[in-house]
Design brief:
By secondary structure, the chain is an alpha+beta fold. The longest helix is centred in the first third of the chain and has 48 residues, at 26-73. The N and C termini lie far apart (126 Å).
């Protein structure tokens, strides 16, 4: 074949090489490299298998030793043998028999001092055992590798428990590492055989791959493949893109056929400069400048050419440039359609910004109708299924489902379209009804043709056509497989009718809006659920009690800022306790949403349950801490690797006793309460700071105060004093200043004043505020005295009770009260120690308390007919409305409550 003038000669395709694989070829060199890599991988795999085999053998030895030791330790008669006069004589033959049958190297029985009672080496009997026996003596199990008399070995040591549960001896069993190594070495032939097989298969596979590479490269060596570059001319002249290569002096070094055709160049152009060519001035200026160009379009004759130009002297290359030329004439005809597509893309982009800005179903529909009427149609309506408007899952969708007109937008309101609020049921036989059933959009290009759309309402259809409505698109709002409603777009003022492309655009627009509508619907449902949950978990009223005058406020976080529907984990509680005492509780669970609210409900319920045990605040917090730890464990087990953070919570508990004016406080990571004295002095109570709930195992401390009557306790959560625009120290100072100087405020007035001063405009966290003003029972309503530890003192107790009740004008309760106190005092004299004290409190109920220095609590039981005692507490439980036991630092208090009428 003769080469064209000015062009390097084209070479015929190199003939495929035949014959064996040569190491000088590319395929041969690749084969050698792959074989080396395979050998290295096999060697590494062998090493890993050997190490793994050693590790598995050691673990098996540990398991076998532990199993033998535990079996022997639990063998019948071992305890009697250990306690016999000569344990070695009894146990040595049994231990050796167990060693031989189990395949271990030794089974040794030890006394509690760690001395051998048995051994496979009789000379070691009586000597100290080699190994760590401390954990086993404490009831644990020891697994270790040590150097013993038999050599390095793996051993397990377990305790031997006596009948009373104490450790009376130890049993140790072990296997030497020599035996383990022997097991491993027995596997070497198999391992080496497998490795050889793998190496053989890998070598064969490598040979096949190299053979494939040899066929693909035609068996050429590197030098031979270099010659293939000479065939570039055939490629350059075959492509449908012009290529020009110029040197540093702007002389043409290479021009392919496509470049000659596009630029109209003659055949002999190589070696000429750009100025010598008859080129378009703009194209010639670009090629002469040598600057970088990317898809610059030039008109050459009737063609539009896109030119790209790059320098060749980058990365040490020769000076010059390379230019590529592409004919884009056909693209000009599509430019108009591209503009239309860009406008539609812009429309969809703007719709994403303007539709679905809120989590409100109706507002989202109004945004869709308003946007479509202004940018796409003249009028737009949106109809939704009734259940969707209520936030529920749509049960009946499509044609035949009741839909309510939710949104309307257009230049005029007085049209024949159905007005807002109208309930519409689309007929199945109409085009729109069929489209709803299939979930597809419906296009009516000429409403005046009356192709069936008018059957929904013929009178309204005629009025619409007479008013100039000429085309319509109806698209179902579809989300997650359910049809939520339908959006309809109408044109009357715009002369152009809707086209098929417009229907595609409308479907895309409605699809995006449907997601926003469904999200808003789901939010409405979850918001309703959250509000219901919130109301059910927080207190709905105040309990009847005389100790404190209380008031509270709860402000949820703003929806969208603090979580789902503003629901969080803050809570408060007022709990009436025995003895006219009252507990004030404020807590905060970290986070927001249903999980935090549910955790809060569990903690609030737990506080109520623990309060029935009449525990002090620090012990109650300890029980709550244990509960939070268990909640965390349950969550981690249930959700495994899911992103479920550890539950965190803070809590403050205050218990006030109106009989003494005493107040006991304890807190777990919570902010300090404020105490406002009657003179208006406000100060933070210095309650010892305990850790937040959920850390586990850390103690809590209490603060005990004696408050004068009329003092105010202010408990709150950190959302009141901390905000993104205010530091917590600044908030605490503002709270104290707000409370100072106003000791005469009622609790309600205090709540209002605090919220006015500190409530953020848009709270991002829940706020719980609890205020209680103390009352002290009048001394005339409390009677108490000491009782000597003498059975004859019971009669005196009954007499004093009768006298006290007569002064209180409660003679009707005298018999019952005397019976209750005589039984309680008799029990205290008979079973308790230390001073005995009786206290009567007249409050909303008549409270009887008997305290002593014993920590033993009586238990209610049903006495048998032959028992001489055991019926007293049963009688107390029958006559009293409630009774229980409260522990104190120096003993306990047994209390009862009897209801009073008109007290």
């Amino acid at each position: 074949m003769t080469a064209r003038s000015g062009r390097p000669p084209r070479h015929p395709r190199t003939r495929r090489a035949q014959g064996p694989l040569h190491m000088r070829s590319v395929a041969g060199q690749v084969f050698l490299l792959q074989v080396v890599i395979v050998i290295l991988l096999v060697a590494a795999g062998m090493a890993a298998l050997v190490l793994q085999s050693h590790s598995d053998s050691e673990r098996e030895a540990t398991r076998r030793s532990l199993a033998v030791a535990e079996t022997f330790a639990n063998a019948p008669g071992l305890e009697e043998a250990l306690k016999s006069p000569d344990p070695t004589a009894v146990l040595q033959p049994k231990a050796e028999t167990a060693r031989k049958l189990s395949g271990v190297d030794f089974v040794v029985v030890l006394d509690t001092q760690g001395r051998r009672l048995t051994s496979p080496l009789p000379g070691l009997i009586g000597q100290q055992f080699t190994g760590d026996t401390g954990p086993a003596l404490r009831g644990g199990v020891v697994e270790e590798q040590v150097g013993g008399p038999l050599g390095p070995l793996v051993q397990a040591t377990v305790p031997v428990h006596g009948a009373d549960g104490s450790v009376i001896g130890l049993v140790s069993a072990g296997v030497t590492l020599e035996r383990v190594s022997g097991v491993v070495e027995e596997q070497f032939p198999l391992l080496f055989g497998v490795a050889a097989g793998v190496l053989l298969l890998a070598t064969v596979g490598t040979a096949l791959v190299s053979g494939r590479l040899r066929r693909q490269t035609h068996g050429l060596g590197p030098e031979e493949m270099t010659r293939m570059y000479e065939h570039h001319d055939a490629v350059l002249h075959a492509v449908r893109e012009g290529v020009l290569i110029l040197d540093g002096e702007r002389r043409l070094l290479l021009v392919n056929d496509e470049a000659r055709r596009l630029l109209g160049l003659p055949a002999e152009v190589e070696g000429r400069t750009v100025d010598e060519l008859d080129l378009d001035p703009h194209t010639a200026r670009l090629l002469s400048s040598g600057r970088i160009a990317s898809d610059e379009v030039y008109r050459v004759g009737r063609r539009l050419l896109a030119v790209n130009q790059r320098a060749t002297d980058q990365d040490g290359g020769p000076p010059g440039t390379v230019a590529t030329i592409r004919d884009t004439t056909e693209l000009a005809a599509l430019s108009g359609r591209v503009d239309v597509a860009q406008q539609r893309l812009r429309l969809l982009y703007d719709a994403g910004d303007e539709i679905g800005t809120t989590l409100d179903v109706v507002r989202t529909c109004e945004e869709l109708a308003g946007f479509a009427a202004a940018r796409f149609a003249d009028y737009a309506t949106v109809d939704l299924v009734e259940t969707v408007l209520r936030g529920e899952e749509p049960t009946a969708t499509g044609a035949g489902a009741d839909m309510r007109r939710t949104a309307f937008s257009g230049p005029r309101d007085d049209t024949a379209l159905f007005p807002l609020g109208t309930t519409i049921r689309f007929l199945p036989g109409t085009p729109l009804g069929e489209g709803l059933g299939k979930g597809e959009g419906v296009l009516e290009t000429d409403l005046g043709a009356y192709t069936g759309w008018e059957q929904q309402s013929q009178a309204r259809a005629r009025r619409l056509v007479e008013a100039g409505f000429h085309s319509m698109i109806a698209v179902p709002l579809r989300a997650r497989g359910a049809i939520l409603g339908v959006a309809m777009f109408w044109r009357s003022d715009r002369p152009e009718a809707f086209e098929e492309e417009d229907r595609s655009l409308a479907e895309e627009l409605v699809a995006r809006a449907a997601v926003s509508v469904d999200n808003a619907r789901r939010y409405s449902r979850e918001h309703t659920m959250a509000v219901t949950l919130q109301r059910s978990l927080l207190p709905r009223g105040l309990p009847e009690q005389s100790a404190l005058e209380t008031a509270f406020r709860y402000r949820p976080a703003q929806a969208g800022l603090g979580g789902l529907g503003g629901v969080g984990g803050d809570w408060f509680d007022i709990i009436a306790l025995p003895g006219s005492r009252v507990a004030l509780v404020v807590g905060d669970v970290v986070g927001h949403g249903l999980h935090a609210a549910a955790t809060m409900g569990r903690l609030r319920t737990a506080v109520h349950n623990f309060s029935t045990l009449d525990l002090p605040p620090d012990e109650l917090l300890w029980h709550l801490d244990e509960l939070v730890v268990r909640i965390d464990q349950e969550d981690s087990e249930a959700e495994a690797a899911a992103e479920a953070g550890v539950t965190g919570a803070t809590c403050l508990i205050v218990i006030y006793d109106p009989a003494t004016g005493g107040c006991t406080m304890a807190r777990a990571g919570h902010v300090q309460p404020v105490v406002v004295h009657p003179d208006g002095t406000a100060a933070f109570a210095n309650v010892p700071g305990g850790p937040p709930l959920g850390l586990g195992g850390l103690p809590f401390e209490t603060l005990e105060l004696r408050l004068p009557e009329g003092s105010t306790l202010v408990l709150y959560t950190d959302g009141l004093v901390e905000d993104r625009d205010r530091d917590i120290d600044e908030g605490l100072t503002l709270l104290r200043d707000t409370l100072s100087g106003h000791g005469g405020r009622t609790p309600d007035e205090t709540c209002e004043a605090v919220l006015r001063a500190l409530l953020p405009e848009s709270p991002r966290d829940d706020i719980a505020l609890l205020v209680g003003r103390t009352r002290v029972l009048d001394a005339s309503r409390v009677a108490e005295w000491d009782v000597p530890s003498d059975p004859s003192a019971v009669a005196e107790v009954r007499a004093r009770v009768a006298g006290t009740l007569k002064e209180w004008e409660l003679e009707d309760e005298a018999f019952t009260t005397e019976l209750i106190l005589s039984e309680l005092v008799t029990n205290a004299i008979r079973y308790a120690v230390g001073p005995i004290r009786v206290r009567l409190i007249r409050d909303r109920a008549l409270i009887c308390e008997v305290s002593d220095h014993s920590s033993t609590s009586p238990h209610l039981r049903q006495a048998a007919s032959t028992d001489e005692g055991g019926r007293g507490l049963f009688l107390v439980a029958q006559f009293a409305d409630r009774w229980g036991t409260r522990y104190t630092p120096d003993g306990k208090v047994i209390w009862t409550e009897q209801p009073l009428t008109g007290a």
